[in-house]
Structures are given as structure tokens and as C-alpha cells.
Amino acid sequence: MNTSSDNSTGLIRSLIEYIDEQSFLAGHGSKIVFGSILAVFGITAYIQSEKYSKYKKSKRISTSSSSAYKESTAKLNKSRKYGHWIPDYEFHTPVPPAYKDWDLKKTKPLPYRAFRHKYAVNMGIRNMEWDNWIELDNEWEKFHNHKVERIEEKGTELYGTAPEAMEAAYELLDEFWQYLPNRYPSLFKQTEYGLDNLLTGEVHKFKLGFRTEDDPMKIAAKMVQDDLAIMIEDEEGTYYLKGGAIILAGFWRLKDKFNMPLSMIHTSGDVPKYKEKLKTGMEKFFIRQTCDKPVVRNNYFIQTDDNLPWSTSIGSEDKPDVGWYTAQPATTAEQLFFRSERQSLRRLPKTGAIIFTIRTYFLPITQLAEEPYVPRRLLNGMSTWDDDVQEYKGWDKYKDAIVPYLEMKALEQEARGLTAESVPDKYPY
Ligand code: HEM
Predict the structure, then answer these.
(1) Does 370 map to a domain?
(2) Other C-beta atoms within 10 Å of 385: how many?
(3) Final residue of a domain: which of 78, 95, 110?
(4) Which domain of life is it from (predicted)?
């Protein structure tokens, strides 16, 4: 892998060769040789002073994306040879403040309601605030217990790290080492060997010099509620799923997608309009994403059973083929659950890997429909799904249960004056 110091040495070497060649051709003897030596010394001194000022900057913890960062390694990486990321030692993820009044028992999951009156297929990415990279709440214990149980039961079907993602996986853990105890100090304690979990007593060892045989993605999975994926760029600029802990994904399995490129991950799952509306934008986005510009996106699904880790109604997790076509139609609203993911994407500075986090929010439709304005908006949103979206999201298997129910709840709310015209300006989408 290239490094910036390799680049500087290479530059000096080429200059010496160039000057040697010029002096030989011009035949100007010792004057030119002396001039050349001076020039080389001058350039070396300049590079050293640049390196020193970069080093000085790297000692400061940045709290936002600094202009120095944008102009240096980021610029070099813009024109990198694909698959050869130049480690960015200048970029430091901003250290978050402690989450205000965060309480493992009391802090509720955030109410993402990522549906609009009209459904549209698009990337739907927004800038992410660094402080909110990983969201933990009073469901942490439930998620953690599911994860621990499932890892016991299914082991490496659920997590894994290819050799080419190993460095990135440890870099992710180093990022957690900084982020988690600062953001959630009542749950994590930073140690010289890694992190201690103050609730479960788990001791996570992963810092250099303290690493164990444990897969780094398995260690990472036990800290957060999210599923995690590592995408690595190859020499054509294609991104591959090379590491992951996909433990509570509901509808897809790591073992089916491991080592796949981004496009095949999506086409193999028949993601609607992927080729027409998503592929080009996504591939460009992955190549261009810089370390200082993390993003998030949200989605939603309806599930016809209440199993967070794996939606059993689409078939057993252990069967080769699963899908909506095997599901029994739901007949009551009580059978229906709202499943919504908050996904984040960020590039790690040292390895250049892209980290994809997937946090699931899961609640009964009957609970969701009590929220003001929600039943009408969700109903309208789903009614504008195209045929391919309907098929992908299993519409036929629950439409007869959900449509009359949401219509009834919407009418009830509208009779109380909660109409489209009275929607408040700020709604927690
Ligand atoms: C800008 C980034 C991305 C965009 C815009 C995107 C978009 C989508 C969309 C639109 C879907 C259909 C479900 C939904 O509405 O969310 C989907 C499904 C999926 N995406 Fe992505 N995605 C992105 C990144 C990734 C990454 C990095 C992975 C790597 C693991 C991934 C894995 C999947 C999987 C496994 C599915 C389900 C496919 C199936 O049903 O088999 N996505 N994605």
C-alpha cells in the first residue's frame, strides 16, 4: 500500500534522476552538480517542514472538518489509484460529548418514521452529525442478548472478516474505543487493552499488543445495537463486502452476500429499480466519499411476525431459498410490525474502508398507528408503491390486514382534527 512518505521519497528520487540526466545532457559539469545538490537539499528541507507541520496538526483533535484536512491527503486520495488508499493521519474523528441524560433503562429508541405521502426510490442520503454515529438506547440489552445467543448458535455464519478487511476491522474497533466511552460513559470504559462493558462485565481486548484470536467483527458486534459491514475497494474502484457482523438483519444473510460487489449485493436481492435509479449514483458515491463526510439513510418494511433477528414468516433462516412467496398472508393488524433501518456510511481514514452500519428499529403497527398523522401518511406512502416495490416488500401478504386498519385509524384521527393541513412544521422523520 502507498503511503505519503513513500510518495515524498519517490519524488526526491525522481528529481535526483531528472537533475542527473539534465546535467549529463548539458555537460555543464560541477556547477550543475553543485546546483542540483542544493536543489535536492532545498526540496528535502521543504518536505520535512511540511511533514512537521502536518505532524503538529495531527496532534490536535479536530472538532470539525478542517480546511487543512481538505487540502492535503484528501486531495491526494481524490486522484488515488483505485484500491490504493493513502492513509490519512491528519483526519481524526471528532470526539463526541456524552449523550445528554442517556440512561440504559430510560432512553427511548428514536422515532424514525421514514415514510412520506409519496414513495420514491432514490439514495435518500443525508449528512450525518458525528455525535450521532452510533445510537444506543433502552433496547441495548435486548439487542445484545439476541446477538450473544445467535452468535453462540450460528457462529461464523453471522460474522466474519476477510484478510483484506482485517486492518479495517481493527480500525473500526479503534474508532469505537474513542467514540463509545465518550458518548455512553455509563456503559463503556476505555482501557489500555480495549473497552470494558460496565453492564455486562464483558472485557473487550483489541488494542494493538492485546489482540486475541477473536474475530474483530464479532467483538464490534457485541458493543452496539447495529449490524456492521466493511466495504473494500478493489483496483477497478468496485466495493466488496469483505467484513461484517450481520446478526439482526431480518431479511438477508451475511453468508449469501459475503465477498459480493455492491451491485450484486443489490441485484441478487432484486432491489427495485436498482439499475435504473441507484447503481450509478451509489458507485460514484462510494468512490468519492471522503473521511469527513459521513451520511445516513433510513428505510422501512412491514414484517408479518415479531422476530427481530430473522423474519420467520419468509421461511427458515436455514433454508437455501427464502422469500415473501413462502409467507402466509397476515389477517390481523396485530400480526404486523414496522421495521425501519437507520444506516450510516463513513470512510475510515487509515485503511480507506467504508463502514456501513445498520440499526433496526422495530415496533408493532398497532403502536405506530397511535402516533399523530402516521396512519394516513403510511397508508398514502404504501399506496404509491410501484408493482416492483410491492413485490419486493411483500405487499400481497399483508395488504388486506393493513389497509383497512390504517384507514380506520386515519379516519379516527382526522375526526379529531389531525388532518394533512394541520401537520406541524417539524415532524420527527
Ligand atoms: C449509498 C448506499 C446504499 C444505498 C443507497 C442502498 C440502497 C438500498 C435499497 C434502496 C435497498 C432496498 C431496501 C431499502 O429500501 O432500503 C437496499 C437493500 C439492501 N442493501 Fe443497500 N444500499 C446502500 C448500501 C449498501 C451497502 C454498503 C450494503 C452492504 C452490505 C448494502 C446491502 C443491502 C442489502 C443486503 C439489501 C437487501 C437486499 C435483499 O433484499 O437481498 N447496501 N439497499
Answers:
(1) yes
(2) 17
(3) 78
(4) Eukaryota
Residue 100 domain-assigned (yes or no): no
51 CB neighbour count, 10 Å cutoff: 13
Shared domain check, 261 and 386: yes
Query: How confident is the model over 279-292, as pLDDT tens digits?
Result: 999 999 999 999 99
Helix%, strand%, coil% for the chain, nearest 5: 45, 15, 40
> How many domains does the structure of the chain reveal?
2
Taking CA atoms only, the protein residue closest to ligand 1 atom 41 is 269
- Going by the DSSP 8-state scheme, the letter that residue 326 receives in this structure is G
Average pLDDT value over all residues in the chain: 87
Q: What range defines the domain where residue 73 resides?
A: 4-78
What contacts 155, CB < 8 A, 6 or more positions away? none
Of 61, 78, 95, at which residue does a domain stop? 78
Q: How far is the CA of 266 from the centre of ligand 1 (A)?
A: 6
How confident is the model over 111-156, as pLDDT tens digits?
Answer: 999 999 999 999 999 999 999 999 999 999 999 999 999 999 999 9
Report CA(354)–ligand 1 centroid distance (Å): 14
Give 259's Cβ-side CA count (13 Å radius).
4
pLDDT tens per residue, range 346-377: 999 999 999 999 999 999 999 999 999 999 99
